[in-house]
Amino acid sequence: MKHFMQIIREARELRLNIEKEMGETLSKFLSASSVMNPKMLE
Predict the structure, then answer these.
(1) Is the alpha carbon torsion for 12, 14, 20, 23 positive or negative?
(2) Is the confidence at residue 40, as pLDDT, over 80?
């Protein structure tokens, strides 16, 4: 049971890290798209 709980904690930490990184990446894409003109985005 302890091993199972350790796996659950590790999965949670990984998921939180990925969610954080995805949020940062989305923010960077939004910033970049606001600066670029529509032709460059195609």
Answers:
(1) negative
(2) no
* 1 DSSP 8-state letter: -
Alpha helices per DSSP H over 1-42: 2-35, 38-41
DSSP code of residue 37: -
Q: State the first-to-last Cα distance of the chain, in angstroms, to the nearest integer.
A: 51
At a CB cut-off of 8 Å and minimum separation 6, what does 41 contact? 33
User: What are 3-38's pLDDT values in tens digits?
Assistant: 999 999 999 999 999 999 999 999 999 998 888 877
pLDDT for res 41 = 65
